[in-house]
Amino acid sequence: MPELPEVETIRRIVERGLVGREIEAIDLRLPKLLRTSPLPTLEPLIGQRVLAARRRAKVLVIDYSGSLSLMIHFKLAGQLSVHTEGGDRHTAGHPVPDPLGPYPHRTTHLIVRFSGGAIAYLSDVRQFGWLRLLPTPQVEWALDGFGFGPEAVGDGSIGREDLAARLARRRIPVKLALLDQGVLAGLGNIYVDEALHRARLHPERPANSLHDDELDRLHAAISWSLERGIEQGGAKIVHNRAYPRDGFPQVHARVNEPCPTCATPVVKIRVGGRGTYLCPGCQQLAGR
Ligand SMILES: [Zn+2]
Questions:
Q1: pLDDT digits (tens, 9 = 90+) for 18-36
Q2: Distance from residue 202's CA to the centre of ligand 1 (Å)
Q3: Is 16 labeled as catalytic in the residue annotation?
């Protein structure tokens, strides 16, 4: 569930709370998080200082002194919680463990202690996430290996014409084309549903069937949905219900709640096996 806005929120937490601090101790309780790591342990990070935090699609990259970088993928259920010496907590990602509860939680797999007293807890209730430690000069090459398309939001993000050209090559449902990280990097299930609702497009419309005005609406709606998510610090979904009850996301995880545009109850369907939420009033398959 951590999608681009949640990962961007985690990036900002690291940037604000940890840059400049030195790592004093590392407790990795689930070594399999390193199963695909070029360097086999995190020990080389001890004594190194955090230099920067950056993001490509849903991959977080933290750069350290000593020319080392840590790549983190939060997958379905990763969460980072940074506790500072003043007692402040900054948490983003999956809602479990409870950000206000005790840490470390039984699902906390990595604890990093920093100079000045800050502690970072990485938790992952599903254990699908991963960490890769590698020399900083190898990061670009490692990221290239994912074959990510252009970013969906932010500096250098996809232009309207590029989006149109990429969708024109695909007959699959527009929802599935948008979820393909090689088409567009960083859009996941929640934000695709929100963007399609905002653009008034049915998720099963073939990607290559969209008209010019529909492409205009979709291009604007993609950055709107991600920016709205980032502004809120990510989406909060617990037991398939979105919170806050009258906020964002507007249709995802809101079955039977009124569409904020037309008040028609939101329905859930499956598109390519993915749970998909839409408003049958605003998003008609025939287009409009
Ligand atoms: Zn509607």
A1: 999 999 999 999 999 999 9
A2: 11
A3: no
Q: What is the pTM of this model?
A: 0.86
Closest by Cα among 21, 117, 23, 122 to 71: 122
Q: Could you tell me which of 43, 41, 68, 64 has the C-alpha nearest to residue 135? A: 68
Active site residue 170: no
Q: Count structural domains, the chain.
A: 2
Task: With respect to residue 152, please indicate whether it lies within any of the assigned structural domains.
Answer: no
Tell me, in angstroms, the distance from the centre of ligand 1 to residue 14's CA: 38
Q: Is 150 a catalytic residue?
A: no
Say which residues have a Cβ less than 8 Å from residue 167's Cβ, sequence separation at least 6: 174, 177, 183, 207, 208, 210, 215
45: CATH? 3.20.190.10
Distance from Cα 224 to the centre of ligand 1, integer Å: 17
CA of 283 to the centre of ligand 1 (A): 7
pLDDT in tens, 186-228: 888 999 999 999 999 999 999 999 999 999 999 999 999 999 9
Q: Which of 113, 258, 274, 280 is catalytic?
A: 274
Q: Does residue 2 carry a catalytic annotation? A: yes
Q: By residue range, what is the domain housing residue 170?
A: 160-278
